[in-house]
UniProtKB/TrEMBL annotation:
It is found in: Membrane. The keyword Transmembrane helix applies. It comes from Streptomyces castrisilvae. The chain crosses the membrane at residues 75-93, 129-148, 221-240, 498-517. This is Cytochrome c biogenesis protein ResB. The keyword rRNA-binding does not apply. Residues 73-553 form the ResB-like domain. PANTHER family: CYTOCHROME C BIOGENESIS PROTEIN CCS1, CHLOROPLASTIC. It is a multi-pass membrane protein. Residues 1-45, 562-588 are annotated as: Disordered. Keywords: Cytochrome c-type biogenesis, Membrane, Transmembrane, Transmembrane helix. Pfam families: ResB (PF05140). InterPro entries: Cyt_c_bgen_Ccs1/CcsB/ResB, ResB-like_domain. Its main location: membrane.
């Protein structure tokens, strides 16, 4: 009677599957022992440790465990993904570092989510605690990952390809034949062939060992080093950057000092004394626009002609600044941002004395450069009785007027084909002496009284160039003298931008190398068989399964076979002449 017992719940098919799985595991373990050093170190990646190998719990143990996790490639990719996610709110939500006015407008329009966003620091994403933490952890993770892998890679470069495994038939790509050439001749021919194909090759024992594709690991390291360069360049640029805006009317100029900027922002470590000394004058702005077709009104020429000089005593030079073609002075770039019109107006007081004449920049509100703004006469004005007063005018300008009776005051075209200036005036206190900063394009009418016409209604007039609006009760007049154009410039200094570009190019090149270059090894063994005929075996091993490896091995075999041709007695099975027994599925 048999003592064998079986599990009644398991079926014969399940038992067969279990047996096959056990056999497969045994074969894999046997293959690993057979390959030995030949199948190792095809990558610089650190080996995964089993959970049972974790250090004993304790401060040092936990620190070592945390460091291994932080410096693993898996965590580095997770942190890189989190950094990308963290940049999303910085792109969608207005940032204080870019435009505080837009942030305040957003807060006023979204009162429900604003407190949540403030607690999450969504209005200052790139300087927030959580974004900085991800950034620093990613930086440390990449360094901790690269340093040991670099040492491993350097060691691989200094070492020779390992010797051939005992059984080449166990490798994924394999071929063999018998030849009448001597084993030494075959090995010499194989060595020449491998070196000609740019393999690192040498003779070890009765075989030639060759390896190729080291640039795969080099590309992997370059990719990670480039990421570190980009992170450092980004941080350096944020800490030492400067950026400001300046609106310049034709004929006026700009000098690169803090007091000249309309708006200026800088990094926390930026020194105001480090501004690059230069100046420029806006000689002319030229803008032409498409007049027909579906793209009517689209700019065709959009350029600012300037005269600039470097340093305090530099020679004047001419330059045309276009969109995406900035003026560059010692690392500082001057970009052309926007364009608009500045109506030239003159104001006379009640006694007929001209007290104000200037080109007043107005801000566009649509693509056809319909513009609004304010004209402020703060000093020198006296009414008909000689009493000091201040004047303010709300201005609405259209470069191309639709015409009377058309029912619209909006511009029909960006060019100044028919300029019209609409004004309504006020007198009183402009509030400029209160010490509170004012927007130059807005009129504070809190302490002002509007002028009224003879009909008792608010005084409003539309003026063509050369026309004058008379103020009531002998208060004076305002004349629309002509038009000048203005251009808005962004002056920015972004240090380390060249390093960031270099890092980006290096990352792309490294990633391409790590993806498209295959690390592989080839062995050619030539030994004399029992019957005195030389048996040649060739086998290849790659880091990952690839159809290119068998094809490459076949090409090498054809080339070597030309110098060590197959022996005439091909009836004998080559596998029998070999001391190795081919594994199941091996190529022949």
């Amino acid at each position: 009677m048999s003592n064998t017992t079986s599990n009644p719940s398991s079926s014969p098919s399940q038992e067969r599957d279990q047996e096959q799985e056990q056999e497969r595991d045994q074969r894999e373990q046997e293959n690993a022992r057979e390959l030995g050093a030949a199948g190792s170190q095809l990558s610089t990646a650190p080996r995964e440790e089993a959970m049972a190998d974790l250090p004993a719990m304790g401060v040092i143990g936990w620190a070592r465990w945390f460091w291994r996790q932080l410096t693993s490639m898996r965590v580095a990719l997770i942190l890189l993904f989190l950094l990308s996610l963290g940049a999303i709110p910085g792109s969608l939500i207005p940032q204080n570092s870019v435009d505080e006015l837009k942030v305040q407008t957003f807060k006023d329009a979204h009162t429900v989510v604003t407190p949540i966003y403030e607690k999450l620091q969504f209005f200052d994403v790139y300087s927030s605690v959580w974004f900085s933490a991800i950034y620093i952890l990613l930086f440390v993770s990449l360094i901790g990952c690269i340093v040991p892998r670099t040492g491993t890679f350097v060691g691989q470069l200094r070492s020779r390809p390992p010797g051939a495994p005992k059984r080449l038939t166990r490798l994924p790509a394999y071929t063999t034949w018998r030849t009448g050439a001597e084993p030494e001749q075959v090995r010499e021919a194989a060595l020449r062939m491998m070196r000609k194909r740019r393999y690192r090759a040498h003779v070890t024992g009765n075989a030639v060992a060759a390896e190729k594709g080291y640039l795969r690991e080099a590309g992997n390291l370059i990719f990670h080093i480039a990421l570190i360069v980009m992170l450092i360049a980004f941080a350096w640029g944020q800490l030492f950057k400067s950026e400001g805006a300046k609106l310049v009317v034709e004929g006026d100029g700009f000098s690169n000092t803090i007091t000249q900027y309309d708006d200026f922002k800088s990094g926390s470590l930026f020194d105001n004394d480090s501004l690059v000394p230069f100046s420029f004058t806006l000689d002319d702005f030229i803008g032409t626009y498409e007049r027909e077709g579906p793209q009517v009104g689209t700019p065709r020429t959009y350029e600012a002609h300037v005269t600039y000089s470097e340093g305090a005593y530099g020679e004047p030079q001419k330059k045309v600044i276009k969109v995406n073609e900035p003026l560059v002075v010692d690392g500082t770039k001057v970009y052309l941002n926007a364009h608009g019109y500045a109506p030239v107006v003159s104001v006379k007081d009640g006694r007929g004395k001209e007290v104000y004449k200037a080109a007043v920049p107005l801000l566009p509100i649509d693509n056809n450069v319909t513009s609004t703004g304010a004209i402020k006469v703060m000093d020198g004005y006296r009414d008909k009785n000689g009493k000091k007063d201040q004047l303010g005018f709300q201005a609405f300008f259209v470069p191309t007027f639709a015409g009377n009776g058309q029912g619209t005051m909006f511009s029909q075209f960006p060019a100044a084909d028919m300029p019209v200036l609409a004004l309504n005036g006020y007198h009183g206190s402009l509030g400029v002496n209160s010490g509170i900063a004012q927007n130059v394009y807005q009129l504070d009418k809190t302490k002002m009284t509007e002028f009224k016409g003879s009909d008792g209604k608010q005084l409003k007039e539309r003026l063509l160039v050369g026309e004058t609006m008379k103020l009531p009760d002998g208060a004076g007049s305002i004349t629309f003298e002509g038009i000048q154009e203005w251009a808005s410039f962004q002056i920015s200094e972004q240090p380390a931008s060249g390093w960031a570009l270099t890092g980006a190019i290096g990352a792309i090149a490294g990633l391409a190398g790590s993806l498209f270059i295959q690390r592989r090894r080839v062995w050619v063994r030539a030994v004399r068989g029992a019957d005195g005929v030389t048996v040649v075996e060739m086998a290849g091993l790659g880091r990952s399964e690839s159809a290119r490896l068998p094809e490459e091995l076949a090409d090498l075999a054809v080339t070597l076979n030309a110098e060590a041709p197959t022996a005439p007695d091909t009836e004998t099975d080559a596998a029998e002449a070999s001391t190795a027994e081919p594994a199941e599925g091996a190529e022949k």
